Amino acid sequence: MLFRAAVRQSAPLRRQALTPLARRSVTTDAASSHAENVPQEDDKPFTVRLSDESFETYEIDPPPYTLEITKKELKQMYYDMVSMRRMEMAADRLYKEKKIRGFCHLSTGQEAVATGIEHAITRDDKVITAYRCHGFAMMRGGTVRSIIGELLGRREGIAYGKGGSMHMFAPNFYGGNGIVGAQVPVGAGLAFAQQYNEEPTTSIVLYGDGASNQGQVFEAFNMAKLWSLPVLFGCENNKYGMGTSAARSSALTEYYKRGQYIPGIKVNGMDVLATKAAVKYGKDWAVAGNGPLVYEYVTYRYGGHSMSDPGTTYRSREEIQRMRSTNDPIAGLKQKILDWNVCSEDELKSLDKAARAHVDEEVAIAEKMPVPENTSRILFEDIYVRGSEPKWMRGRTVDETFYY
C-alpha cells in the first residue's frame, strides 16, 4: 500500500524533447548525375558521379557514388525506356478500344526501375515481380509483339494468350504474379535453388508498397536471412497501393527498413543510373555470401493502379503533372546524354524515332495474330511445359478424360 501511494504521489515522467537529426532524403530527380572527360569512343568506359541524394541505407554502407558506363550503354538504356513507354501507351490505346479485356496494369513513369535492374545483372540472374510486369518481361527478352499479343489473348502471345496482363514469363523471368505479395516467397525459393546449385547469381524479387504489409513477405524475409540466400527483395514504392497512399496504409513507410534484421537500401528509382549502381552493388553483396538485402525503389506511376482506375480521385492532377515535368526518367536520361555530348540532339531524335517505329510495327503484327480456335482442347494445353505433358489429364467431371 505504501508503494502504491508513493507511485500516485510521484511526479509523472516527462519525455525529454530531442532535437531531430538532420537526415538526407533520397531525391527523385532523374537528371542529378554528373560526368566529365567523356570519351569519343562509344564503347570506352567513363565515370559518372551520382547525386549524394541517390541512396539511403539501413545497417549497410551505401553503394559507390560513382559508376562506370559507356556511351553505347547509355543510348541502349534510353532506347529501352522509350520502347517500354511506347509499348505501354499502345496497351493503353488498345484497352480503350476494348481490344484488351480484363486487368491491365501499366508502368508508365516507372521505366527506370526495370531498365536499371536489367543493366546491372546478367541473363543468368532471376527476376520475379507482381502484376505490373510488361516492362520486366520486355527487358528479360520478351518481344513487344509477344507481350501485346498476350494482352490481346492471342495464341502467339508470350504465355500463349492465357496469362494476360498479369502473367508473363521469359527465360529466368518468373512472372507476372496476380496474387498480392505471393511472388516474394517464390522468389526466395529461386534464390534457394541458386544457392543449392552453387550458382554465382542472384534473384531479384519485386513487390509494390501495397504488398509490403503481407505476412508472406515477412516470412520470406525470415527464411532468406536464416539461410543467407542470395536474394535482393525490392519494394517499388510508387506512393500509392491502388488508391491508398503509403502514409495511410503503412505504419512504417521507410520500406527499406522493413527487413529489420536484413540490411536495406533506398534508391532513387527515377534515375536509371542510380538504380543500376545500387543493384550491381547488391548483386555483388549477395553472391559473396552476405545474404539478402531489402531495397526500396522510390518511383511514381503516371496512370492509375490499372486501366479501370482514372488515378485522379486520390491525388491531384497537379501532382501528376509536376512529376511528369520535373522527374521523368526518360527526360532525365535524355538531358544527361545531351549534356555529356554522348550524341547530338539529332542522333537522339533518330534513336527515339527508331524505338517508336519498332514498337509500332510490333504492335501492328500482334493485332494481326490469329485468335485461339474455339475448341475445348485448348483448355488442356499449356498446363505443362510443352513436350512434358503426361499421357492423360482428368477433366472437369469424373467421366471426362483428355489424352495428349
TrEMBL record:
Oxidoreductase listed as a keyword: yes
EC number: 1.2.4.1
Cofactor: thiamine diphosphate
The UniProt record lists the keyword Oxidoreductase: yes
MF (Gene Ontology): pyruvate dehydrogenase (acetyl-transferring) activity
Catalysed reaction, written as an equation: N(6)-[(R)-lipoyl]-L-lysyl-[protein] + pyruvate + H(+) = N(6)-[(R)-S(8)-acetyldihydrolipoyl]-L-lysyl-[protein] + CO2
Ranges for domain Dehydrogenase E1 component: 79-373
Ranges where the record places region Disordered: 22-46
Pfam family, one: E1_dh
Keywords: Oxidoreductase, Pyruvate, Thiamine pyrophosphate
Superkingdom to which the source organism belongs: Eukaryota
SUPFAM superfamilies with a match to the protein in the record: Thiamin diphosphate-binding fold (THDP-binding)
PANTHER family: PYRUVATE DEHYDROGENASE E1 COMPONENT SUBUNIT ALPHA, PYRUVATE DEHYDROGENASE E1 COMPONENT, ALPHA SUBUNIT BACTERIAL AND ORGANELLAR
Primary role: The pyruvate dehydrogenase complex catalyzes the overall conversion of pyruvate to acetyl-CoA and CO(2).
Protein name, per record: Pyruvate dehydrogenase E1 component subunit alpha
Annotated source species: Aspergillus brasiliensis (strain CBS 101740 / IMI 381727 / IBT 21946)
Lineage per the UniProt record: Eukaryota, Fungi, Dikarya, Ascomycota, Pezizomycotina
